Amino acid sequence: MATFVKDFKNKNRTLDESHPIMSCFFEVIFLVGGLGPNGLDVRFNKISGMSSKIETQNIRVGGENQQMRPLPQQVVHENLVLERGVARGSILNWEFNLAMTNFMFFPGNALVIANDNNDNIQAAWLFRNTYPVAWKVSDLCSDDSKALIETMELAYTHFWSLRY
Questions:
Q1: Is the pTM for the entire model greater than 0.85?
Q2: For residue 73, what are the contacts with CB-CB under 8 A and spacing of at least 6?
Q3: What CATH number is given for 2-51+78-161 in this structure?
């Protein structure tokens, strides 16, 4: 895993600091068992839940009822939510099946990469110890000709921003 992150950091990228990073060119790389990338599950329509927050507890100061100081308690994360068209032959679907039917979990890591329109890496985030917590398939409707969408939700212990 450390070698993969090192190779990622050394990968050629161009960063034009005068323009913001676009959110429409991205990919997700799942590191199966922490050993290597899973090449089948990289394309998603939407990713959300990339956030951390420090919860605080208010403590009264000096015996006065009017003054409170917030003290940091713990870091909490939203779940990572991935949306895509239903895929055939997906290892990620197999992992979700095992979790949802047999309550078997194989925590892994996920790397979310934001690219520019030339496929150069602009930013990335590494999510550690991910595991499935929710799985939803869109409604089937004979009135529409829309793609069948699946929503996959992963819990994780922490994530790092790898942009610099």
A1: no
A2: 54, 55, 56, 57
A3: 2.30.110
